[in-house]
Protein 1
Amino acid sequence: MNKLYRLLLCCFFLMSLGIAAQAQRRALINGEFKATSFKDFVDAVEAQTDYHFYYNPKTTDSLKVTYSAQNQNINVVLGQALAGTQLHFAVDEQGNIFVTEGRDIMSDLPVDFFDTGVAPSNNTLVSGFDYTAYEKREKQKKLAESKLYAIGPKSSNLQGNATMAGHVRDITNGEPLVGATVYIDKPLVGVITDQFGYYSISLPKGRHELKIKSIGMKSTVRQIMLYADGKLEIELDQDVTPLKEVVVESDKDVRVMGMQMGMEKLDIKTMKNMPLALGETDIMKVVLSLPGVQTVGEGTVGLNVRGGATNQNLILFNDAVVYNPSHLFGFFSTFNPDVLKNVELYKSGITADYGGRLSSVLDVTSREGNLKKFSGSGGISPITGRLTLEGPLIKEKTSFLLGARSTYSDWILRQLNTERLKNSTASFYDVNLNISHKINDKNNLYLSGYISHDKFKLNTDTSYAYSDKNASIKWKHIFNNKLYGVLTGGFSRYGYTMTSDLNPVQAFDMDFYVQQLNAKMDFSYFLNAKHTINAGLSVVRYNLAPGNIQPKGDSSVQKTIRLQHEQGQENAVYIGDNFEVSPKLSIYGGVRYSFYQYLGPRDVYQYANGVPRSEANITDSVRYGGGKSIASFSGAEPRFSIRYSLSQNASVKVSYNRMRQYIQMLSNTTAITPTDIWKLSDPYIRPQVGDQISLGFYKNTRKHSLEISLEAYYKTTKNALDFKGGAVLLLNKHIETDVVDSRGKAYGVEFMLKRSTGKLNGWFSYTYSRSFLQTVSPYAAEAVNKGDYYPSNYDKPHAVNFVGNYKFSRRFNFSLNMTYSTGRPITLPLAKYELGGSYRLYYSDRNQFRIPDYFRTDISINIEGNHKIRKLAHSSWTFAIYNLTGRANAYSVFFRSEQGKVQGYKLSIFAQPIPTVTYNFKF
Amino acid sequence: MTMLTRYCFRLRSLFVCSLVGLFATGCLEPYAPPAIENTVDLFVVDGFLNQTDASISVRLSHAVALDDGGKPPVEAQAVVQLEEKDGNTILLYGDGTGNYTAAGLSINPEHQYRLHIRTMLGKEYYSDYVDVNPTPDIDSVTWRPSASSITLYTNTHDDSGKSRYYLWRYTETFQYRSPYEPGYRMTGGKPDYIAEVDRVGTCWTTKNSTSILVGSSERLSSDVIRDFPLTVIAAGGDKLSVRYSILVEQRTLSKDAYTFWTELQKTTESLGGLFDPLPSQVVGNVHSNDLSEPVLGYFSAGQQKSERLFISFYELPDYLQIYPRVTCQIDSIPLNRLQQYGEGTYFISPYGVPSTIGYTISSSFCMDCRVKGGVTKKPDFWK
């Protein structure tokens, strides 16, 4: 008892000491107040001292202060002045005074948080309460929401518009929020934050209530008084109970009101709720559940977007190109879910700042490290383990994020009894590192590095390894509120090696790589409320080693073959303008001009005219020196879209875009293989050109809770590559003799119904789409299917997807995922005949038949740990069953002659329900 | 770590399904294609001009629908000619079963040859002119044991470096025995001792290769084929139960012929893996006068070298010396019931000492080796 008493006493002493120390640093107050309004009282005190008041004018407007003060302490003065009211006050170390209604507050709150650069106080002596961090933030939010922010120097001229700009960030870790909506209701003016969380909005001068919404974050408002151009930094708090209200408030408006069409954005929270095979959130698989995205078979990683080939997707990871986003033959994507922020897929209406691929842009963005504290997360699934660490390097300025993931599948393979698999190995890992640094208010620097590596050997003598590496550096400079620029430098390299040593005479090492260096400058200029202009230029330098093979070991007689390296340079400039003609009508118009050169040094074969290109028709070989242009191609790529609002909840949009592609993948297999090679456009292989026109109707109903969209598109492709029967693609010195030119057309309608709020949310989509190819060759012998249009490998007319989440409680979440699609086209044998001692097959024209339809159901249950904010680690469990009905979906159908007989087979990959358990943690 | 052990069971089923489905044949099911109406009549030409024994053989047939159970029909009444470029024309003799041959030819290896075919319906077909390819000798045919089987390999080389592309065919002959060789046969109402020449306990079966075996040293600095795998034979079967022999025939191919056979092999023998190429129509070097009519098959010319290898049961490593497992029941037939058995029935041996009281018998599968398809006549080359 005695001890406790002493402790209390001690505390009391310290507290009074603290207050005393404070008071000494502040001037004492003198003054006669007689029924003075609170505002005048505040002005008087602020004039005498360097105290600064924060209060809500609404709660104090009826208050009159009557008090006479002579050299009195602020605490005494305020205590008297506010006596008998519901108002409380608190004074902090910096001389800020907070006047609040109802409950008392802690004066050490970092309210001056918004005045960047001032570190929040850690003095808790004044506090009589034990506030959790969450409650603190709630208080801050309320305070910030009621405060009136003056933007620009005060002036009485409130004519015309002014521009305010700033960043929207996550309050817990300082990460920028992409795609947050910043808007006012009257008149309805709104903008969306860009990839840096940056916004710039032009508003009529005067007082506004600025609303801010973002996915998974608490919506907030700011009272602003806009005098002139100025800055406002906004921080949003995470929705701590995302299970209750997962979604996407901002996107609701975007779909109808935004300019962009044919775009799907998924944040990592939505993706983590979906049930998936092998217990790992996989963005490539999630993207496949969106309308208009197809694949040739499960377990393959290639995406076919709106009837485009798998190599026609620009896959960007933090602005660096990813050539092979798959691990383990496509069972996993190389993107570690723990480091991801969101994924945007553009299927149409692609703006002028993107270029280089025909079909789509898949823009994958990783998070930035936590600016405020160290934290980590990780997980264990049946196949992989992963760990992510992040935190500040310099508090509030520099942060890092390091994520690593690896598999223990080698260990699993060794446990298997099958002799076939026991000798097989398969392993992979990937590592991500992001560093972001805030140099000052106007300059930010972002560094991103990424490595993925795969190695496998399948009971054969050949082992394979492939690796994707990339790095990017971005410097963002804000010139002023209206103009900012980003300078990006990037490096990407994809390569593989094959090693065979079973037969010492033929033992070899083979390798391939494609590498690109790119630099680009992008500018965004917010001209006025009606125009936002984007412009920039980019340079990409390609270097490919199409294949080297060399003997391995002394007894090998393998010939050393080094295919000539390929060089190319792709330059582009672009400009685009978002023009809001009226609140109802918006137009985007842009153009990109790309110029490509295929460069020496290189020996180029010449072929006889008038006959098909073949080895026998090579007439000459011409030598081009280093840096000499061998062939060049250029062209304009116009892009435009129009949005017209039919009402506040409905709009129609039209868009057109042309894309040009100067690098293509050579593959004559159904699925992408790790050993597919890439090829630059050259004198014989012309760049691919694609045009797409699309039309969409969008409607939100029931207070935006249900979104309906209907999009139709028509697309054509020129100079797509097809291959002659039996083409040899690897180590081919004259690949042009094995390819034929073809053109493609695709069209379709996508219907989507999406509910993003409420206990039950998710989407349903139906797609009707067709995709055709046609050989363009003057020689009948080269024409596939006699030169007629034929269905492409990924032509699947009907596709239905259902993705649903139901939240039983904040801790239990149930997800159901159903997928149906028409079987993909295949080529079937028509007849059999005897040759060489066995039956052989005569195949039909290409892709005239289909494999059986595809149908799959998956379920998963997420169980979150308890929701106590403060504990060592937060954990969650995911139980999932992939292919619940165990339907043996055909991956492929094929025929073989075995023992002189023809046998037909159907191969399925996941022919039975696959249960998985994943444990995730966060600290 | 507890995590791992706890879910180990799940891991296993998961991996077996996914990986086996991928790389093995675990998740394969038989598949019958939809009924396809095929109205195209496809003519098939399979021809080889053999310089080594100065002969030519051509087989003409037609393709049949996939689900047709019968043999493909042959083209028996055609006129087939071998044409030497700027030279003679030789008429081939048709045997009425689709085979056309000629022997004792004088083939000039410096010249080019082609086939000219006229069918009974008056359709005409020509092959391209082909070179007569010299073929190096087979260096050796070897075999090596593995865990439960043996693999046979062939080796060759060409110092001139001109051959490069090779095709192999082989003929396997193996000797095997029935589990219970019968000593007696019902002759004239009673079991009679079988003379040596009529014994049915030991047979020889001969089979031709069915796969397309092509190889190339294109990417090697010297024209060497080392350890090209021909076939894998599982231990414990009839093939290796007594003595096995393989006759390997080797031909050099032109690059075009090599491409043809490689494509044919890819489209009919190794399709269906995740990373296998798409099937395509494989066009040979025989053409119809009607350009729109596809013709299947190939004609080539050259030397053919051969090599024979014997492997007997006792040469196998001990762990592979496994006798075929069959369950055969032996019945005893008393003399008074022998009349139930017809003429020609085999019996193993008499029983009863000192006087015979009956004969032992088993199923004909267990006594007569010919039931499995072999013949009792020892091949001439069998030493």
Protein 2
Amino acid sequence: MPTRRQIFETRQRRRANLIAAGSTLAVVLAIVLLVPLAPGWDRVQRSFFNGEVFAKTFPGLLEAFLLDIAIFAWCAPLIAALGLAVAIARDLRTPALYPVKLAAILYTDIFRGLPVILVIYLIGFGIPGLGLPRPWNSPYIWGSLALILVYAAYVAEVIRSGIESIHESQRAAALSLGLSTSDSMRFVILPQAIRRVVPANMNLFIALQKDVALLSFIGPVEIFRQAGVYKSLLANFTPYVGAALIFLAITIPATRYADHLMNRQRKARS
Amino acid sequence: MKLMTFTALACGLAGAALAQDDCAAGKTLTDGVLTIATGNPAYYPWVLDDAPESGKGFEAAVAYALAEEMGFTADQVTWVRTSFDQSIQPGAKNFDVNLQQFSITEEREKIVDFSDPYYSSAMAVLTTQSVVDGGAQPTVASLKTLLWGADANTTAVPMLMDLIGPDKQPMLYDDNVDVTAAMQAGQIDAALFDLPTALYLSAVVVENGTILGQFPPERSDNPDQFGLLMEEGSPLKTCVNEALAALKDSGKLAEIEAEWLQDATGVPVIE
């Protein structure tokens, strides 16, 4: 039996939902009805939302998207591993290992500070230009390395923030139980730290999923490049819209999932 | 009011003083001025030193000859720069005509207007000496086995697929510079360009660059013809075409071509 307060709150919520739905509908209707009234709408529609072009190019785009997925699939685990290693290196407290720590700091500073596209050009064209034989000069290898280097720097910083969020007393307790420093990191600190930063890392991987398209600058014909080819041949931007839809189909669920994880975490903590 | 009088006056003066061709009068963006767009940057040999105002380079020279034919003096020509994307975007254009080696295709004609062709280009295979030493021949069978690259924004992509049909998926790049960088890095063996561009790249840009062969401009499959791009339904189109026809008839166009574009009969034709 719900209390009077609960009944009142349910009614309030329903009212709020109705108003929200009504105002959303009004805005959507206004957009749908008003935008086509703009004098240039015909041309915009023909250039960006052309059904004929869309149908013609969409299958090719989907096929090209497989390459994006493949690049993402082989980059993501390497980014996670390198990011973790760098984060641990930044947390080293042994004086003799200070050079390693310094290198890790320099690495994150440099690669977080550079535009991804510059790193891709520099590594993707620069290193093969040194005269490597095939297949070791492949843009897939070096372009992926560029992505890995940039994203691992971000992931390292996120993991480091996780490590630092674990109270110092945990470390002290682990050491007093007789665990070595590496064991206390491995069994006590990291399991808690990583769990805390999962949502933040999810966001990074969503961003990575979009940035994979940047590899097209050095040759691979992935979805963005394929859309560009269609655009150029048909003098029409609709293929980009098709590519955007494919990206959204992946990123929106992923973003929602990250939000869901974050909410759950907040509830668990409070 | 002042402005209007001034404009009217200016038009009157321009009309009277220069006997502007009736065809183009009042059809340009700015009265009495022909606004021509080219690429950013514009490449040799189409435009020399990225300075179309000098009239040097094939397209720059064609532009001024065309303007003259249409009744504009050199002073009445202004240049703007557009990327490919800017030239095809919907909405008002900031140029009257745009020439930057736009290939005329049926699909593109649906969105923008093209003039009649002012140049028919051979397509040439740019490669490096080491690839030739490695046994590459100017035959389609041999070319199929190479690792190909091309500028993604050009019709070289479908031509590559149709004329050669490489065994491996070609690599595509944003511009000539990236294609040559990839070639220099050994990531691609060969790239397909229009012949004048390929000649320039092989001579100046690519170290040990060489032209393996050409598909001549008279080929019936996939001819590559350059046209001036205009806004769809541009009233200038007929004037431009008339002027182009006049330039062709008088032999002026051929003259410009001979002056700025290298004779390429020495390049072997691909079987």
Protein 3
Amino acid sequence: MFGYSMADIGNIVVMQGFSGLSMFTVLLLMALGLAIIFGQMGVINMAHGEFMTIGAYTTVLISKVAASYGFTNYYFVFAIAIAFLLAFAVGYFIEFIMIRHLYKRPLDTLLATWGLSLVMQQIFRSSFGAKEVSAELPEWMLGSFKPTPDIDIPINGVFVMVLAALVTFGVYMFMYKSRWGLRVRATVQNRTMAGAVGINTAKVDRVTFALGCGIAGIAGAAFTTIASTGPTTGTLYIVDSFMVVVFGGAASIVGTIASAFGIAQAQSILQFFMTSSMGKVSTLLVIVTILMMKPEGLFASKLRK
Amino acid sequence: MTLWEKMKASPVLGGKEGVIGLAVLAAIIFVVLPLGVDIFRLNLIGKYLTYAFVAVGLVMLWGHGGILSLGQGIFFGLGGYAMAMFLKLEASDPLSTKIQSTPGIPDFMDWNQLTALPWFWEPFKSLPFTIFAVLTIPALFAYIIGYAMFKRRVGGVYFSIITQAIALILSILIVGQQGYTGGVNGMTDLRTMLGWDIRTDSAKYILYFVNGLLLFGAIFLSKYIMSSKFGMLLLAMRDKEERVRFSGYDVSNFKIFIFCLAAMMSAVGGAMFTLQVGFMSPSFVGIVPSIEMVIFCAVGGRASLIGAVYGTLLVNYGKTVFSETYPEMWLFLMGGLFISVVMFFPSGLAGIWDKYATKYGWFKDKAEPVKKPEVSIAEGEAQAVLTETTPETTLAAKTNDAVIKKATRKKAAPKQTEPAPAIDSNKMRGAEA
């Protein structure tokens, strides 16, 4: 196949598979946030990519500060926390001034948040410049380890994967095991009844939206370890993340993980054998075709229509 | 009856107000602008007016049908590329391409080491086929997408997201397949159409007028459809899809039809774009142009055909002015426009106009009232989801009574701002999925 030996193909699949894993983690983190915002609340947040960019720029800035004070090795933990908090705060604010007026018009949230994403992109461009910037990675994150001579696995990839696993676990615990998660699910399922039993639904909405944005902020922090950040970085991922959420079945965490994995791996491996654009095209085409046949996604909860 | 009375009474034109609105638009497009601006600017306006085809299609699809397609750039692009392929083939005859290693094929193919014309380029050597292709290929493509999705009752936001993904796929594909499509630069250096040089000033004037006439054709066709029973059904579907379905109509077929029609209009716009601007590139196909076309329509008023034309002109004029003088401000402005139109003026310019026209009683028909299906909406979409009361919008659609219309609007408006009215999200999801 394509003039490679079987052993070569094995190695290519492992290595491309691994580079696919880095993309998988970013997609997963983005999609988790979206799964909460879109899957639970039904809000189409086209500015989700820009919340990721907020996280990425925060990490870059903190890394610059850390580098000038000489504690590059430890800054990343703080960067993740601050990226989360900042994106959370912006999300909270945006929900308050904009999103809450549009809950009954899902198509209009799409347009309004698209406008928001344009504004945010221009803010990034005005304040950080149009050039892409990258974070100074801590030394322990550089380099790679080699289980066999032909396979090279970068450490930063392993790191973001661990991070993504932790965040996914956290989201799961929050949504399904905590008091807050219960309130969120109650509000989504029946807003009026939730309000009647004393849940402050407006507040639940605001926190849920902000949480989704905060997770996008973490995605941004993870993103800085694998690529450099520019004002329009977020737009590269927005369609992919939406496809992940829709493909996985909007409200299902397992579905989100599975489809993020599938999409990232398919793209990464196909991109090696075809050109990068054709890899992306064929992946998206397959997803769209499957979605046309099975519009509710792979892991949709069984709902009678 | 005199002609004037006939026109006023025609349900297609929408009464006195409709006739005057059309006449004013016609005067602006065919008289004021050609006399008032030089050919360079007029050509630019002609370019904007090609987007208006898309906006008019979106008024029917989104404003009246409640289907938000974020992939209208696909059809604009398909139409534009079909025309560009014909013009490109004519521009690359063996004589003018004799310095290439393979004369007679478009220059970008030669640069990409293609030695023969690909099979799907062959039919575009003929103009009749090209025109046929402009009209049918996008419609066929829309039919496939529409059939696959509407038959399975995929609607609402899912439809938007998937059409957006298709727009992305197509633009990546065009950029990626350089040898067949000209890649990111698109098809440039288009010169003649059947030997007629399209770059001269006189050709630009002629194309501008042809474009304007076609646009009016599209508007009249849309008006005709809106005033028919189908137009009523479309509104009813937007507001209460389930009820229409339970009344025995096959909702999906109507949706497919309107989607195909909007696609066809976009494609005509795309073909006219290529003719007037002289090139076609993937930057008119992807996500960004597709969603910008939605905002043209939203600014003009998503339910108003004429409003959509004004919206397109206004936004594009603003874009040109601002990107010439303050390029940095433009994105802020565009973003702000998206947000403010959605949040504060959901019915756009047409809504503002309606408000004052009704308030001061301009253009009120004193004679026999005519059927007027155009309702100012935006509340409609909200209502469709949240109220279980009588379908007021459909009621309003059937009467021309401004009082009822006003009352409806008043009744509907506060509902929007109320926090959390009875809303059954399961039902909502069910309707969307």
Protein 4
Amino acid sequence: MGQKTPLYDKHVEAGARIVDFGGWDMPVNYGSQKEEHHAVRQHAGVFDVSHMTIVDLSGERTQPFLRYLLANDVAKITQSGKAMYTCMLNESGGVIDDLIVYFFDAESYRLVVNAATREKDLAWIREHAEPYDVRVSERAELAMLAVQGPKARELAAPVIGEQWRDQALLLKPFTAMYAGDLFVARTGYTGEDGWEIVMPAADAPATWDQLLAAGIVPCGLGARDTLRLEAAMNLYGNDMDANFTPLESGLEWTIAWEPAERAFIGRAALEQQQTADNVRRFVGLVLEGKGVLRGHQRIVVEGVGEGEITSGGFSPTMERSIALARLPAGDYDVAKVDIRGKLLDVRVVKTPFVRNGKIRVEL
Amino acid sequence: MSEMPGDLLYTKEHEWLRREDDGSVTVGITDHAQTALGDLVYVELPEQGMDLDAEGEMAVVESVKAASDVYAPISGTVEAVNETLADDPERINSDPYGDGWIVRIRPADAIDESELMSPDDYQALLDELDA
């Protein structure tokens, strides 16, 4: 028996198949993963993401601390409520975790980190926060729901108190606000518009009921995975971990190289790697024929070398198999995948595969 | 609660077998198996005429979640495969004991039912898995 979110009983009530996910009993689907996937691309779905870890930071030197801790530069976010995606690196430039940081003011930030890396993250953050005298508070008493899809904000708006509703609907992408007891952010992990809503655990079941009554479809971790794969959003532990740097994980865009004098953990290692000419590529793949690409399948690039799929699956939107893969350096756009001993054709494509309901790669 | 016809034989790997009047055996995966796998997206079928060894890998079914081997419940020769699954693997989800059949096997030897599971035995296995 794993840990349960405040919505566990609601999941069972909705007919969820429960699986273990990083020590948590979570819904993988409520019947059909494909239908849940399509609901998010075409309508609206809700995911319980209460297992994710929310960490609030405060203290006079919070900004300098985060400028040291994170590879992206929090000094770039200056509007209250603005969010930023970043990696937290070790000294070798390996990814300890990826996370979203929200800015409130220079002395107050919120981090949302992965559930599976919670202990390691908290230990690392606390260790480095100490010299900066920054308070680190884990907010385990909060629940979080992600409502995602083209209709998600419109349908979910009634759960927000009337006096904040209009303002919440005007939130720009990657910004957040407090709305009474709620924290509403226009963020997500599906490639669709939507909100992530943080609330006191005790309010979560009633909010869940209200969202379902509004016609929002309950969605499990299965659909969350195929949606994020189509959106080419990395999954920690599959697409990157402490053995790989952001440069090898398709995340160079999250590194703030400027200002050059900002010393962040992992910087020296990244600078050294950046000058190398054999940094592995991190790419999207489409399987040309029938079959399913899966994590750890071997990729063979003729005359160049071999690599591996980091996550793969069947794209319900494209009705084709797609993957993210770490491949040898070089200029090529076709390769072979080893599926049960057969070498099948794959094509290297520019990601995302799907964004805002639209297929973005040529089939 | 999984559906489970009483006129079939089963395996612990969640395949079902139907003994046809002409002596051949039709094989598929059970309702429990398709539910556990979720929406199927691909089926790799054996070649017609291929010889199968009991408990050897015979086909692969892949869902949005995972790939799973399907084992030959008996030794024999592949007499027919369900070609419609190539374009419509979800037939296994919607009708696992009917349109979602996978292969028809011509048994190499007389079938030893003691090597297979009766509906009651299979139900007992499912009850154990649920417990």
